[in-house]
Design a protein that fits this description.
This protein has eleven helices and 13 strands. By secondary structure, it is α/β, with parallel strands linked by helices. The strands form two sheets. It has a nine-stranded mixed beta sheet, sandwiched between helices. It starts with a strand and ends with a helix.
């Protein structure tokens, strides 16, 4: 059995959030609410989401030696995340500037800061941590070469991975890799081939498909088929209030969401992916894991903020 159900390798940011009546157009200034500062970043969010649900979770990330970094470390530890893999220093902590309108939709600009200094060398030094996880979850708020190095380290370490079996755990295949390519960027073939699943929203799916005619269609089934043809072992496309589409080589299934009143969508995708990765790490099949993750994502949009909106397992069960 692995030491951790889930290792998240990714970003840790301070979220600076302002509520607005509407987002400004180019060259326009609008007034907003008081500034609120919250722990965030896609990597840190996923780790907290999983740990709050009960996962044995660790985080490999980099923060600055500053107040925002201390806020992030405290939030991880409070949620029960193992922070032994969090490196400190090299640059100020990353910051996300977020505006949220009355419908709950948000716009985000990220200054990577220390996230951009999480290096391939950091990953290689943490090879033991990578090998100790059932699932490794990745995003693209850290350098793409660092993401590729995670895939390389996991792949080259598989020969020695002999303990544990099960659909979502380790074994001869080593840790399972879940990737949410956000913000979207072109992915090397070896990274795509390792994804099981590749988790994308509509915008990310269309970006990855580029000039592929499937990207111009309105059917997520077409996006999933075209993405699978590029190499990932499975694909999950999140569809907001419509739920999520699950696709692998055998079948494609639409998993509906729960009807909820959205207050703030910030971090909902991270809550979904963290929950999905955790359930895969404890042996759930992909469709079963997505059904659970859809419920977690729906619960997360009913409260303001990112990490503070993530539900516990008891709250998910109550829904």
């Amino acid at each position: 059995m692995p030491d951790y159900d889930l290792l998240v390798v990714g970003s840790a940011n301070a979220d600076l959030v302002i509520g607005v009546e509407r987002r400004p157009a180019a060259g326009e200034t609008v007034l907003g609410s008081d500034l609120a500062v919250h722990p965030g970043g896609k990597g840190a969010n996923q780790a907290v989401a999983a740990a709050r649900l009960g996962a044995r979770t660790a985080l490999l990330a980099r923060v600055g030696d500053d107040g925002h970094g201390r806020l992030l470390l405290e939030s991880q530890r409070d949620a029960g995340v193992d922070t032994a893999g969090v490196l400190v220093g090299g640059a100020p902590t990353g910051v996300a500037l977020i505006t949220v309108d009355p419908s709950g939709d948000n716009s985000i600009v990220v200054s990577p800061g220390a996230n951009a200094r999480l290096s391939p060398e950091d990953v290689r030094a943490a090879a033991g941590l990578l090998a100790s996880a059932g699932v490794v979850s990745l995003q693209l708020e850290i350098p793409l070469e660092t993401v590729a190095t995670v895939v390389e380290v996991v792949r080259t370490g598989r020969a020695g991975a002999g303990a544990g079996t099960g659909e979502g755990g380790t074994g001869e295949s080593g840790p399972r890799i879940v990737l949410n390519p956000s913000p979207p960027a072109p992915l090397p073939a070896e990274v795509l081939a390792a994804c099981d699943p590749l988790v994308v929203n509509e915008h990310e799916a269309r970006f990855l498909l580029g000039d592929d005619p499937a990207g111009r269609e309105e059917a997520p089934e077409a996006w999933a088929a075209a993405l699978l043809a590029r190499g990932p072992r499975s694909v999950v496309i999140t569809l907001g209030a419509a739920g999520a589409l699950v696709a692998d080589r055998d079948r494609t299934t639409l998993v509906p969401s729960l009807p909820v009143k959205a207050v703030d969508t910030t971090g909902a995708g991270d809550a979904f992916t963290g929950a999905l990765a955790w359930r895969l790490g404890v042996g759930d099949g992909l469709e079963t894991a997505v059904r659970f993750a859809v419920r977690v994502g729906a619960a997360a949009v009913t409260r303001a903020g990112a990490q503070e909106s993530f539900p516990t397992a008891e709250e998910v069960a109550a829904r």
